[in-house]
Specification:
It contains one helix and three strands, in the order E-E-E-H. Helices cover 22% and strands 51% of the residues.
């Protein structure tokens, strides 16, 4: 399983969990909003990109 931390086009920070199926095919296992602490970490990371 892999988690992807990203923002929607509207700026909503989400964590999406995916499972590799085959080749370029991935299955979404679940998604949730980031916690306050996760959002702070992610925002700091974004500022270095």
């Amino acid at each position: 399983m892999l988690t992807v931390w990203a923002r929607t086009r509207d700026g909503r920070p989400l964590i999406v969990a995916v499972h590799h199926v085959d080749g370029f095919t991935w299955k979404i296992i679940g998604a949730r909003d980031m916690s306050d602490a996760e959002r702070a970490d992610f925002t700091r990371w974004e500022q270095t990109q």
